[in-house]
Structure formats: structure tokens, C-alpha cells
Amino acid sequence: MPADDAAPRLTLPPGPRFAALGAEFVRGAGAGSGIEPRLADRLALIAEEVLAASPPGAGPVSLALRDRRHAVRLELGFGTADLDLAGLDQARERDLEDEAADVGLYLAARLADQLTTEPVGRNGLLLGFDLARSYAPRSPERPPSGLGPLAGAPVDPDDATLALLVDWAEAQGLGGAGFRTAPRVLDQRAAGELFARVAMDAQRRPIGGLLWQNFGRRMMALAGPALLLPPGPAREALAMGLLEAALGALARGGIQGLVVLEAAPDMPRAAFEVVGHLPDAAGAPQPVLFRALEEDPGGIAWVPPLLRDWVTRTVRRLGLGRDIEEPPPPARATGAAMAAETDRAAGRVTLRPLLTAGDAASVAAGNVALFRSQGFAHFRAVLDLGQPGHAAFAEGLVQAGLAPAALIPDAAGDLLLLAVLE
């Protein structure tokens, strides 16, 4: 996500001579924005390492610092994507003979909670480094007895109502991971990255809710629903009423579709298509749900030969208009990199391509091996079939034990989810 116009910005030449200046800019901008010093210091070190590792041919490097409330983000923009940034990959073997620039990029990647790349302009590249804010542990109270029934249509709630619902849902373990830590949920909503509908009873007490967030280009991921009514027809009607309220809100927003990666038990599954299955924490397959909000106009899917049969069957089953093409080989021989998002509580790693090169397969396999050695048991990978270079990572992922698990339709580039299937 590009930085907004209000974000503090600076443009510097690349290279070690300007690295310290970039770091001081980040620290100063962080202090001026009220960002905690410990987070600003980490982002400053990231800026220093990336600038120092950037070759002269990279051209001017833009820096932008953005406070997302629940997280802080440093963005570094380059006018060209033809850069050697392979050091960002955590799985690359390093020894005492490694160049300082490569080690610096590795350190920058390890300091970030999330690392992303995206194209910018005609030929540019944007690196995004996110650090999540921490929230103090809480022990929310359980909801009172005698809630309900539903009174009126679900609403876009005020902060107090949303926080109360999240607290009550967390206390009872309802709604899934999205309904945890009310301060974080409120910060995500204030940053424009989370949306909600909440149902209330006649006393204006929350009895259920549904959340959604951005997912991919023009999609939203649903979380929940969290329902506080006892099992029965009223609870089922509440779940459907919340979904209909969300659909009504999204119909006016230019959203292409809805995806549910981890459906709560009360999600009205008949309202969705099953586009695959992912294993849950216990290894049991759970359906991945999708609902289109716009007609799919068709598109191209760049698929490597070893996945062609699976993708072809899935595309036909879902009735998608796709030209399935074999991607060209990467332009660069070496320098591939992947980003890893870790969830230590769940023992899960999600891998995404960062930079494509001819060594993508070995880099992908190396990432799986690295995190297996660290004790992670659950693996996912996300490949964008609209980007030909992503296909180069597939062979290494499959060799490492991942298999195609779900295909999320997007005419601009379907998202292929691979996972270790039990």
C-alpha cells in the first residue's frame, strides 16, 4: 500500500554515504509523529541498512514513514526494479565472506514483522517494512446472560459498541482470531483497514458481529461471525442478517469478491463457493470460501507445468474464463527472495514471493527447510498467477512438501494457495 500524502517523506541518493542521514530522518519523523522510540529505532536501522546496500545504479531512493495505528510502516521506493536485493531472503546461507550489503539486507528483513514488495510507476519497486504495535494482555469479562433477540438491522458500530462485542467474543472464544484484542481492532478500523457490522438487542447491547479487511487487489476477507445468542433459529437468522448487511455495504465499494480463509462455525457457508481446503491447527481440512460480487471478465493465469492440471480442473469447476499460459523463464539468473509471515502461536509460516529470479525454486525450498528447523509445522504459500515470475517458486514449494490447496478467483491474477496437507 503506497504511503499517503501526509506521511513524512525524504528522497536520498543510494549508498553508504547517505545511510546515516536516512536513519536520522526516520528517527526524527517518528518522534514528530508520536511513534514509540523503540519502533522508530528499528525502522531507522532498516532504512540505514537498505540505503547502504543500494547500488549507485538504483537512482534516488524515496523514504516514507506511515503510522497505521496498529502498526508502523517504512516504505522505500526505487525507480527501477532491476536491483540485487536477494539479501532480504532469510533462508540464504551466509558466512564470514558474505558482503556487508547482503548481511545488512538480511538484518533489515529480520527486523521487520512483515515485508512486502509491489511495483510502483512504470518500472519502479516499493519495499514496505511493517512493525506491529504490541498491546497489553487483557482479561475481558464474559457477556451478561439474557442477551437478545435482535432488534433492528445490523449497524456500523461506534467504538464503544465494537470494543464491547470484541471483548465479549474474546471472553467466550467466539468469532476466530479476528475477534481478539479490542484496542487492536479499533486501531485497525481507525486506520481504514478494518470494517464491521454489529447487531444489537432492544437494550442496544451487541449480540453479534462480522468484520472484514482488505485482501488482495479488490477483495475483502471476512472474519467471524461472532454470535452471542444461544444455538437455534434466532442465532442462524442473526448470522445471515450480518452477512446480508456486509454484502449491502460492500456492494457500493467496487469490491470484486469476498474470501473466508478460516470460517467460524456460524458462517452461512451455503452463501459461498468452496474454492479449496486448508488444514486447520490440528491438520483437518477446512473449506476456503469465496463469493463473487462482480462478474468475472476472464483473464490470464501463468501456471508452471507441474500445477497446470490442478489449476485447469479448478478453473473449470469454478466456471472461470482463463487462458492458462506457461510463464517465461525469469530474466535474472539469481537473486530470488521470499517474504515470510510467522505466527508462532499457531506454529505457522506463510510465504510470499518478493523478488523473482532463476534460483526461485531453491530459494522456496530453502525457506521451508529454514522454518521447519525452527520448529514450525504448518506452512502456506501464496502465488499470484497474474505475475509470471511467481510461478518460478512453485517447483521448490512442491518439492518441500506443499501442494495446491485453494484458488481464489481474481481476473487480474488468481491467488493460488499452497499448503502442507496432512
Using the CA coordinates, give the radius of gyration: 22 Å
Structure classification: alpha+beta
Give the proportion of residues in helices.
25-40%
Lateral arrangement of strands in the main beta sheet: 6-7-8-9-11-10
**Shape estimate:** globular
- Average pLDDT across residues? 91
Instruction: Calculate the terminal CA-CA distance, rounded to whole Å.
Output: 35 Å
For the sheet with most strands, the description reads:
6 strands, mixed
Poorly predicted runs: none
Element order: H for helix, E for strand: EHHEEHEEHHEEEHEEEEHEEEHEHEE
Write the layout of secondary structure elements.
Elements: E1 9-12, H1 19-33, H2 37-53, E2 61-67, E3 71-78, H3 100-111, E4 114-120, E5 124-132, H4 159-172, H5 182-190, E6 194-200, E7 206-215, E8 219-227, H6 233-250, E9 257-260, E10 273-279, E11 285-292, E12 299-302, H7 305-318, E13 322-325, E14 337-343, E15 348-355, H8 360-373, E16 378-384, H9 394-399, E17 403-408, E18 415-419
Parallel strand pairs: 8-9, 12-13, 15-16
Antiparallel strand pairs: 1-2, 2-3, 3-5, 4-5, 6-7, 7-8, 9-11, 10-11, 14-15, 16-18, 17-18
Helix pairs in contact: 1-2, 2-3, 4-5
